[in-house]
């Protein structure tokens, strides 16, 4: 039985694969909406704004609003705002990440920061990485959107944000704080927004080390769907206590 009131869906590998929708997921979302349940979409992708993600979903026939979309960029912005409310931040990342940080009122600076925030930046340079290292050595906290070491492309796996964060960590001998999954920051924010109890929440995702671990860390039920990166055998072989395994969301 599927009795959850607050349904959190991963995006890539769960609702779509790159530019292709997953039809079973789209059908499931429609069934939820017809039952009066608006699902939440939570993604480690900090390179798109919530508006861009809403438009992408709409292109697949999934109609929602920005308040139901959570990105690791937004999570980083909320986290910094909560921990360092008057922070000046040095950012490596896309315009989407900068927009999230400015939305919560953080001041973006090129030096003299209290926090360095790193998200994927395809225009990354030695100078940007050097500045990040200098800022961290001068006392800025190192905060990152997501730890993904690689992401798929038509050419194969390309270096993800985590690879560049590792460089700064290694050079400065400092550990970064990651705000995307498997951190449960996004789930905490959803719980605050809805007032849901943990028993009423579920997380559905394809990735064991990010999605399912975030749900387990937060203490809610998790469902593994076999439409993305991890096969069920891999998840079962780990010691992780996943609530349910499904081949597709037609089973829900
Ligand atoms: Mg995924």
UniProtKB/TrEMBL annotation:
InterPro entries the UniProt entry points to: HAD-like_sf, HAD-SF_hydro_IIA, HAD_sf
Keyword tRNA-binding: no
Pfam families: Hydrolase_6, Hydrolase_like
Single GO MF annotation: hydrolase activity
Record has Cell membrane as a keyword: no
SUPFAM superfamilies (alphabetical): HAD-like
Alphabetic keyword roster: Hydrolase
This protein's name: HAD-IIA family hydrolase
């Amino acid at each position: 039985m599927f009795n959850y009131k607050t349904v959190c869906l991963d995006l890539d590998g769960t609702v779509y694969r790159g530019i292709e929708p997953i039809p079973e997921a789209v059908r499931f979302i429609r069934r939820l909406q017809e039952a009066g349940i608006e699902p939440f979409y939570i993604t480690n992708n900090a390179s798109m704004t919530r508006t861009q993600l809403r438009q992408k979903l709409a292109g697949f026939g999934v109609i929602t609003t920005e308040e139901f979309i959570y990105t690791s960029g937004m999570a980083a912005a909320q986290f910094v705002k909560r921990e360092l409310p008057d922070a000046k931040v040095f950012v490596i990342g896309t315009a989407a990440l900068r927009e999230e940080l400015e939305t919560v009122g953080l001041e973006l600076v090129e030096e003299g920061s209290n926090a360095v925030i790193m998200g994927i930046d395809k225009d990354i340079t030695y100078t940007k990485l050097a500045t990040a290292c200098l800022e961290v050595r001068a006392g800025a906290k190192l905060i990152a959107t997501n730890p993904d070491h690689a992401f798929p492309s038509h050419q194969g796996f390309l270096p993800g944000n985590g690879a560049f964060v590792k460089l700064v960590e290694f050079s400065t001998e400092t550990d970064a704080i990651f705000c995307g999954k498997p951190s449960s920051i996004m789930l905490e924010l959803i719980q605050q927004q809805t007032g849901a109890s943990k028993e009423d929440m579920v997380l559905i995702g394809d990735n064991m080390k990010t999605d399912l671990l975030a749900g387990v860390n937060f203490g809610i039920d998790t469902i593994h769907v076999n439409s993305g990166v991890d096969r069920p055998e891999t998840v079962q072989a780990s010691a992780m206590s996943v609530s349910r395994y499904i081949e597709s969301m037609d089973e829900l």
